[in-house]
Design brief:
403 residues, alpha+beta, L,D-transpeptidase catalytic domain-like, Nuclear Transport Factor 2, Chain: A, 8-stranded mixed beta sheet, elongated
């Protein structure tokens, strides 16, 4: 049987057959005026048929493209699965982005604008977020919850932590706690926002700018956690927040949200607590723990001022290490040597922040404050961070660093 030219599944072969039929009809049509109407009708029908055939061919082409996409997506998903099993998060992240791009090429994604306001974090009556214990009046705090991908702003006033606003955020692709370099995980713990870098001084992907977190902190280093460069930042101005899907470990919010939050953040003062899923405790139980830790801080201050070095060192645990790398024995020798030349020491403590990392279930606490030190031969003023651990004999200092 004779086959018409067939380049795309027979569609244009059918068109060629129809054209042949039209040519045969024209041989028998008298091209007088009264028959021209018939000719134009036949020509119109032929044109309409060609349009239908073209549309059919386009849909068939889309079907082929979609089939190719499915095959490619399946291949990338296998790569992602194997990469995650091997903890090769960089390769998994690349394959995920490639799959997203392929999907956008074949089916343009609907990207609805993010809501200006999200549903507020639900806090049970008479309870507070577990990590929050105490700060000075009108101090602001940030709480990032990874499961809900939200960042909440709180304020401490009149003895209570009040939720101000909740923002949507994007976190690392790996939803576990950060442990290694390049694991694409967002760390969980208590951190502080150290300084702000304006967007005009950075790559455009950071948008409005970035606040630098003090990850890894001293506790992270004691636990052998690795990595760095965990920031709270914006995004490329030409994209929407919900286009990012995941990050390499940073916490990302919209540029407008970051600009708004910048009005409440004080570098080296504002904490940012990151949890997998927030827990709550009663206001009363939190106040009791806060009272313990404030009492500890006052006793530590008074003992240091008393120049009773042995009693002062009893506040420190044998596992103590500071940010300069001094262990307990080295620190002990250093303090005894320094105090021999002291006639007096005076301390002033302000801007206190007392927090407990949720994952340690009340066994670890953070005391952050501004310390003004004055003695007969030395003065200093800095932001100090004490890491405490609850032992059988009470709270003891396991780490000390400056911000």
């Amino acid at each position: 049987m004779q086959r018409f030219p067939n380049q795309r599944g027979g569609v244009w072969g059918v068109a060629f057959a129809q054209l042949s039929v039209l040519m045969l009809l024209l041989k028998y049509i008298n091209m007088k005026l009264k028959n021209r109407l018939l000719f134009f009708l036949i020509l119109l029908l032929f044109a309409a048929n060609l349009i239908l055939l073209a549309l059919f061919n386009k849909e068939k082409s889309k079907t082929a493209s979609f089939s190719n996409f499915i095959a490619e997506a399946n291949k990338n998903l296998n790569i992602i699965s194997n990469s995650l099993a091997q903890r090769n998060f960089k390769k998994a992240h690349f394959s995920l982005i490639q799959t997203q791009k392929n999907l956008e090429d074949i089916v343009p994604l609907f990207k609805p604008p993010l809501p200006e306001k999200m549903v507020a974090l639900s806090i049970p009556a008479g309870e507070v977020p577990y990590p929050f214990l105490y700060t000075n009046e009108n101090t602001y705090l940030l709480l990032c919850q990874k499961t809900s991908k939200t960042l909440s702003l709180f304020r401490f006033a009149q003895g209570k932590f009040s939720l101000i606003k909740t923002y949507p955020c994007i976190i690392g692709m790996n939803d576990a706690d950060k442990k290694e370099i390049g694991d694409y995980a967002t760390p969980e713990g208590v951190y502080f926002l150290l300084n702000f870098i304006p967007g005009k001084e950075m790559d455009e992907k950071y948008g409005y700018g970035a606040f630098i977190l003090n990850y890894p902190n001293l506790l992270d280093k004691k636990e052998k956690k690795k990595g760095s460069g965990i920031w709270l930042h914006g995004h490329k101005p030409t994209t929407n927040l919900n286009e990012l899907l995941v990050t390499e470990g940073c916490v990302v919010i919209s540029n407008d949200s970051l600009k708004e939050l910048a009005n409440f953040i004080k570098p080296s003062v504002t904490p940012m607590v990151i949890v997998d899923e927030i827990e709550f405790r009663t206001q009363k139980s939190q106040e009791e723990i806060s009272g313990e830790l404030q009492s500890f801080l006052n006793s530590w201050k008074e003992t240091w001022e008393s120049l009773n070095t042995d009693k002062y060192l009893s506040f420190y645990a044998p596992e103590f290490v500071n940010s300069e790398g001094m262990n307990y024995e080295t620190f002990k020798g250093y303090k005894k040597k320094v105090n021999r030349n002291k006639k007096f020491i005076r301390l002033k403590i302000k801007q206190e922040v007392i927090l407990i990392p949720q994952k340690y279930q009340g066994k670890i606490a953070f005391l952050k404050f501004n310390q003004s030190y004055y003695s007969n031969n030395f003065t200093s003023d800095n932001q100090k961070l004490l890491y405490l651990k609850r032992e059988k004999r009470g709270w003891q200092i396991i780490g000390e660093s400056a911000l």
